[in-house]
């Protein structure tokens, strides 16, 4: 893998008032969990946080969902109760982050032989 290149997976849930995201580290474990709920969420979720995109779909600025927005959409403000709902009813999206470009270390320029 090239420097800075990474694959990110997220589950997108389109709610009535906002779009919600949960990031997934291990897609295979997530798919196993969909069939077998005995798999712990900690095996495939990167952070136990729910993000909102302010009606920007799966793109846009990601902010942590407020208790008010969770309560309005899911009738609970507990993240631990909301995450399984998003994982079950949302859609998995995978995006590839491009490698970083540019010089590797600008401070070493004076040490090059000319």
UniProtKB/TrEMBL annotation:
Pfam family of this protein, just one? SBDS_N
The cross-references to InterPro entries, in alphabetical order and at most eight, read:
Ribosome_mat_SBDS_N_sf (IPR036786), SDO1/SBDS_N (IPR019783)
Domain Ribosome maturation protein SDO1/SBDS N-terminal residue range list? 9-100
Highest taxon, organism lineage: Eukaryota
Region named Disordered: 92-114
Q: Which Gene3D superfamilies match?
A: Ribosome maturation protein SBDS, N-terminal domain
Its protein name is: Ribosome maturation protein SDO1/SBDS N-terminal domain-containing protein
Species per Swiss-Prot/TrEMBL record:
Trichoderma ghanense
